Amino acid sequence: MQAEPVKNWRVMGSSTTSGGSYNHINVMGEAVTTGDMECQLLRVMGMFQTHADVQVGYANIMGQMDVGGQLRGHRVRVMGELTVHGDCEVEQFLSRGAFSIDGLLNAGTIDVRLYGPCHVREIGCGSLRVSLKKPLFGRVRHVLTADVIEGDDVMLTYTKAHIVRGDRIRIGLGCDIDKIEYKTEYACHPRAHVASCEQRGS
């Protein structure tokens, strides 16, 4: 029996699919999937709503994407807005936009520049860097909020969290942290707020 050929999906207007496996998906209009979906390359410049789980090789989100289930893959790049109602598990997570993740953001490398508000329930990672884009006008400063952040190498600015755990932790300007637990290195900006800090053995 011959294998079903891998297909592409290009949306210029509006389209709905029940899910399935794709090679490339390019959304420039409005797209909806009602079932689980997987693809090698996903590019969203319009609006893409999925009601189930998504598996991607590489995703470039320049528009808006709403994932009803879990998002898993190799690399996710957010230049627009990403909403995930479950967990997001990838190798690399890069954000130059805004995101909201109701569950766990788990990645080897996470690099966030705060161009918009970012919220996640929990972060687990190898390395995490959060920096702020300087506003062109006014004093609007966006913040990353999280209940728990845990990683080997954590560098934060303008972050509000309940607990931050890690091996090497650097807390920068604009942070408001309830509790920090670190192993080997810890540094804190004098204008950041940390309620309590404790060094724990390896």
Walk me through this protein's architecture:
It is a single chain. The protein starts with 6 loop residues before the first strand and ends with a strand. The chain has no helices and 17 strands. The chain is mainly beta and 202 residues long. It is elongated. Helices cover 0% and strands 71% of the residues. The chain has a 17-stranded parallel sheet that branches.
Run of helices and strands: EEEEEEEEEEEEEEEEE
The total strand number stands at 17
Query: What is the CA–CA distance across the termini?
Result: 55 Å
Our Rg estimate from Cα atoms comes to: 18 Å
Mean pLDDT: 93
Number of helices: 0
Spans of at least 5 consecutive residues with low confidence: none
The proportion of residues forming helix, as a percent range, comes to under 10%
Instruction: Assign the structural class, choosing from mainly alpha, mainly beta, alpha/beta, alpha+beta, or little secondary structure.
Output: mainly beta
Biggest pleated-sheet summary: 17 strands, parallel
Quick overview:
The chain is mainly beta. The chain is built from no helices and 17 strands.
Keywords:
mainly beta, 17-stranded parallel beta sheet
Could you outline the blueprint of secondary structure elements for this entry?
Blueprint: E1 7-11, E2 14-17, E3 20-27, E4 30-33, E5 37-44, E6 47-50, E7 54-61, E8 64-67, E9 71-78, E10 81-84, E11 88-95, E12 98-114, E13 118-132, E14 144-156, E15 159-171, E16 176-188, E17 193-199
Parallel strand pairs: 1-3, 2-4, 3-5, 4-6, 5-7, 6-8, 7-9, 8-10, 9-11, 10-12, 11-12, 12-13, 13-14, 14-15, 15-16, 16-17
